[in-house]
Structures are given as structure tokens and as C-alpha cells.
Automatic annotation (TrEMBL):
Stated name of the protein: SRPBCC domain-containing protein
Span of domain Activator of Hsp90 ATPase homologue 1/2-like C-terminal: 147-270
Homology family: Belongs to the AHA1 family.
Pfam families listed in its UniProt record: AHSA1, DUF1801
Domain YdhG-like: 22-113
Naturally occurring in which organism (per UniProt): Clostridium intestinale
Length: 275
């Protein structure tokens, strides 16, 4: 598979894998269906997804594991039960060579169902005429504070040799290629893909503003804008990133994905920075 493969439904996705993996994916799919009978199936971010008042859970197959994505809240609520598995802020990795913990998965899905139903009811009680959350015009803000001086944070953020080491939202993804012409009118490009090579995409844009150690603003190839502020405070650096949401996927999922990358950046800097 490559970035040009577009799956129309979950069946198409599952059929691209070996028979033993197909069996696991179908079993997982069945468990999710039974735990969330009102949820609808779809493909989001090229992954099998169940939707109920917004994205409920996602799953995906990799070379050595099944990725399960129940949002950060689903991971946090079952942190103890999931502690034996690798994972990230909103995901967990179940080894293909081991039986999947279907009872645990059922409980996580049911938890997410109740969570999304509550959100759905809150949306339905909005006053008539009050604007609903619309990704077309939505600006999403994420932020973090890093225990390192702004000059070092800037270096780790902008140099390709570092970008390739932190630019991913979970352990099963990476960035094998990055280039960066850091100047107004300059362009940047990176390749983000699953480590097993199953799929990936390019991410690029053009810089609209660059002020060393202070501001980076750019326009993505699809026309969306991103504005990043670096604030220095007593040896620490606060990053505030504001970006336009795209229309294909729910705002909440985009916010989680970008925040996960930012959190990964924070961890990378604090691990590798030497005072």
C-alpha cells in the first residue's frame, strides 16, 4: 500500500492483509459492533472507524501488532488494564502473536459509547441558532511547555535531523524524510508513514512568517494556515500552535493527533537537551 490507496469501506481495508490477520481484524470488528450496535462503520484517516456522535474508536493492522485507538480518554480510563501493552496518549498496541484481550476491548468500547452519547446529548441541547462545531472554519489550539530554553527548542523544531526523530503521533509511525527551507516563502516537506510501510503521506507547505525563536507561520498545500508561537519563560519554552481544521475528519480527532505529535516533541527535546 502507499499514500494513493483510498479505502471505501472496512471490508476493502481488511482484504489487503494475510488471512490470519483478516481473521483477527474481523473478530475485533465483531466485538466492537456488539459493544456499540448503534455505531456506524466508516474509514477515517485510512483506518477502520466506528462513529457514534463523532469518532468512537479506530483500529489498524501493522506488521507485528494491531493498533487500537479509543481516544485518550479510553486509554486513561483503563490505564491499569492496558499497562502491559505498548501505547501512546490515545492508542494501544496489541501484539498479533498474542490473543487480543476482547473482554477488555468490549469494556473500553462501552465506556466510549457512554462518553460519546453524553457529548451527543449535550450538542442536541444547544439553543436553536447557536452555531455547531464546524471544522471548515474551526481553528484548533494546542500547547505544551518544555523544560528547555527557547533557542534549543527552536533548533529541535526546525532542523530536519531532529524532525525525523520526533514527528509522529504514536510509536508505530515515523518520519523517514524531512527537508526544511526556513525562511519567508521557503517550503518544507516531510514524509509520515507507518513503520511497517503499510501506508503514509507527505506533509508540506510554504512559510508565511518566520521570526527566530518567536514565530513560525505557514500555509499548507491544501490552503489551511498554521501559526506557532514560542514563548520563553525562565529557561522553559511554551509552544502555542493554532491551525485550521480540515473538513474530512472530526475536529476532536485532529486535535488529538496534533497534540500527540506536540507531546512527542516535548518528550524528545527534554530527553535529548543538555544544559
Amino acid at each position: 500500500m502507499n499514500e494513493k490507496v483510498i479505502f471505501k469501506n472496512i471490508d476493502e481495508y481488511i482484504l489487503t492483509f494475510p488471512s490470519n490477520v483478516q481473521e483477527i481484524l474481523q473478530s475485533l470488528r465483531k466485538v466492537i459492533r456488539e459493544s456499540a450496535p448503534e455505531a456506524k462503520e466508516k474509514i477515517s484517516y485510512q483506518m477502520p472507524t466506528f462513529d457514534l456522535y463523532g469518532n468512537l474508536v479506530h483500529f489498524a493492522a501493522y506488521k507485528k501488532h494491531i493498533g487500537f485507538y479509543p481516544a485518550p480518554s479510553g486509554i486513561d480510563a483503563f490505564k491499569s488494564e492496558l499497562s502491559k501493552y505498548k501505547g501512546a496518549k490515545g492508542s494501544v498496541q496489541f501484539p498479533i502473536a498474542e490473543p487480543l484481550p476482547y473482554e477488555l476491548i468490549k469494556n473500553i468500547v462501552k465506556f466510549r459509547v457512554q462518553e460519546n452519547i453524553k457529548k451527543g446529548k449535550e450538542k442536541n441541547t444547544k439553543k436553536r441558532g447557536e452555531p455547531m462545531r464546524n471544522s471548515k472554519f474551526e481553528k484548533i489550539t494546542i500547547e505544551t511547555t518544555i523544560n528547555a530554553p527557547v533557542a534549543h527548542v527552536w533548533k529541535f523544531w526546525t532542523e530536519p535531523v531532529h524532525i525525523m526523530k520526533w514527528n509522529s503521533a504514536s510509536d508505530d509511525w515515523h518520519t523517514p524524510f524531512a527537508e526544511n527551507d526556513l525562511r519567508i516563502g521557503g517550503k518544507f516537506l516531510s514524509r509520515m508513514e507507518a513503520k511497517d510501510g503499510s501506508f503514509g503521506f507527505y506533509f508540506g507547505g510554504t512559510y508565511a512568517d518566520v521570526k527566530a525563536n518567536e514565530i513560525i507561520a505557514y500555509t499548507l498545500e491544501d490552503g489551511r494556515n498554521v501559526y506557532i508561537t514560542f514563548l520563553s519563560d525562565n529557561g522553559k519554552t511554551k509552544i502555542i500552535e493554532v491551525f485550521d481544521a480540515e473538513e474530512t475528519n472530526p475536529v476532536e480527532f485532529q486535535e488529538q493527533g496534533w497534540q500527540a505529535i506536540l507531546d512527542n516533541f516535548k518528550g524528545y527535546v527534554e530527553k535529548n537537551f543538555k544544559a
